[in-house]
Design brief:
Order of helices and strands: HHEEHHHHHHHHHHHHHHHHHHHHH
Strand order of the largest sheet: 1-2
Strand content: under 5%
Number of helices: 23
Largest sheet: 2 strands, antiparallel
Shape: globular
Oligomer: single chain
Radius of gyration: 23 Å
Structural class: mainly alpha
């Protein structure tokens, strides 16, 4: 059996996470938001419009009168080169080109999704491992933490969606690690990496300004405590100038893009969206889209059955319990990371509390909080392995981890729209996690699940072979499904190899990165 060593652990993790991402891929964007961002990328280099003609519920008038997408440009920028490469490759293969034309570009969209989504997931998991090592955890412990990120947090569900959340997590983890390496005496290029990641985050979502503040505060505090007195000011000046310059570049690009679309420099796309919505429906509150009572949105993010971040990411609760109980045992750098990510979580919840869709609207969990929740949750397993806790407490931690794995696996079985549709029709429970397990039980024990409610198609497994089954035909579907089960066996084998390496000797916290 292959052996995983410290030198190869990151590569093994990358391959494993990529394989998992491909395994759970539905073969499509997974959400209308992702598809709309892809359409923007298409519009930048083809004659296609920024908003499709059949997407009548989306877009607001731009400076030229045409409907414009009101999202940030960051996710579309990442999609653009993949679209260019895939579209060129498809055009050079006549059979694929004919299929793509016959299906209105579906072949290109499928290949873009199945290329980019697993890649982003693999990069995020690899970066989580490198960050945990930089935080001081032994490599086997860091390996366990990175494994838990994908199989025991909402990252597994969002691996099915080519939304901006996985990209945001990747950029944030990369920026934190780069800032940490610089604070420990590393060269300025680490600051450049952190700054570029944070600048791109701003292009993805303007509320990422919260991440900018958190990363700079984290790196600055570490640099201040680890630098001789006579060099502190210079180091902090470098931090502000380098990261600040990169972030300023991202902000300037955002303003240029906004002015190109809407003709002004000072408004935001959220503000433009609110103006257009109020103009179309005068009955909307004057404060729309920030019209939800603050308490409703803020508490809903943490204690509501439908969106509570603790229900969808149980490892987050485990992390918080261990941190509180063993705060003094934790290394200062781990405490600093926890404070930084916890601050991002609370700040994002506070900012979005009054937003009309404070939980991210149609999404699995609170879409605005999943990235900081996942970043905090990667500490749960490493802390359980390294902290001095009782056997009973350790067993409780592993029980929570197992429950987390079951929740995340269940989240991938069907489209997240199933429970939303059931709630809208008055036939589902607001306890979304419980409803998901009930739906799985229904699918196993019922001949035609969902047929009586018109939801039969949503009970189809949300994996590519079953997505394509209606157009593949019976014989080819059998072959594709068999290949998927074979891929599942490969993923299980890789998981066993990595888990075995993670749980072998070598527990503890190392002295360095």
């Amino acid at each position: 059996m292959p052996h995983v060593r410290r030198e190869t652990a990151a590569a093994w993790l990358f391959v494993w996470a990529w394989a998992v991402g491909l395994l759970v891929s539905p073969g499509h964007f997974g959400s209308i938001d992702a598809e709309r961002r892809f359409q923007v990328a298409r519009a930048w280099w083809t004659a296609e419009p920024e908003v499709r003609a059949d997407d009548t519920d989306f877009g607001i008038p731009g400076r030229d009168g045409r409907r414009r997408a009101w999202y940030g440009a960051g996710q579309s920028l990442i999609m653009l080169p993949v679209d260019l490469v895939v579209s060129t490759a498809v055009s050079l293969i006549p059979p694929l080109a004919r299929i793509d034309r016959a299906l209105d570009g579906a072949a290109v969209r499928v290949l873009v999704v199945m290329t980019l989504a697993p890649l982003l997931v693999a990069l995020a998991v690899r970066q989580a491992y490198l960050l945990l090592v930089a935080l001081g955890f032994a490599w086997r412990v860091a390996l366990a933490g990175a494994l838990s990120l994908l199989v025991a947090t909402t990252l597994l569900h969002y691996a099915q969606l080519l939304q901006e959340n996985v990209l945001g997590l990747l950029l944030m983890l990369t920026a934190v690690r780069a800032g940490l390496l610089w604070a420990r005496g590393g060269p300025r290029r680490h600051l450049v990496v952190a700054g570029l990641c944070l600048g791109l985050e701003l292009l993805v979502r303007l509320t990422s300004a919260i991440d900018v503040v958190a990363v700079m505060a984290f790196a600055g505090a570490l640099a201040w405590t680890s630098t001789p007195d006579d060099d502190r000011r210079r180091r902090l000046r470098d931090l502000v100038l380098v990261i600040g310059g990169c972030v300023l570049l991202g902000l300037v690009l955002d303003r240029l893009y906004h002015a190109w679309r809407f003709g002004d420099w000072t408004t935001t796309y959220i503000g433009r969206f609110g103006e257009a919505a109020r103009a179309a429906d005068p009955a909307l509150p004057a404060m729309f889209p920030f019209s939800t009572p603050f308490v409703t949105g803020w508490l809903g993010a943490f204690v509501s059955w439908r969106k509570s971040v603790f229900l969808f990411d149980p490892l987050l609760a485990a992390t918080m319990v261990v941190l509180v109980a063993r705060w003094r045992q934790c290394p200062a750098v781990v405490r600093g990371f926890a404070v930084a990510m916890g601050s991002v979580l609370l700040a994002q919840a506070t900012f979005h509390a009054r937003y009309f869709a404070w939980g991210g609207d149609a999404a699995w969990g609170d879409r605005f909080l999943v990235s900081p929740a996942q970043a905090l949750a990667i500490l749960a397993v490493p802390l359980a392995l390294t902290m001095d806790v009782s056997r009973r407490a350790r067993m409780a931690m592993w029980t929570v981890a197992l429950v987390s794995v079951l929740v995340q696996v269940a989240s991938t079985i069907f489209t997240f729209n199933l429970e939303i549709a059931q709630i809208d029709r008055g036939i589902g429970s607001n306890v979304v996690i419980g409803q998901r397990f009930w739906n799985i039980w229904t699918a196993v024990t019922t001949i035609a699940p969902g047929a009586a409610d018109g939801l039969a198609s949503m009970f189809r497994p949300a994996f590519a072979p079953w997505t394509f089954a209606p157009v593949l035909g019976a014989s080819l579907s059998v072959v594709v499904c068999a290949a998927w089960w074979g891929w599942l066996a490969l993923v299980a084998w890789l998981t066993w190899i990595l888990a075995r390496a993670a749980l072998q000797s070598g527990r503890g916290v190392s002295s360095g990165g």
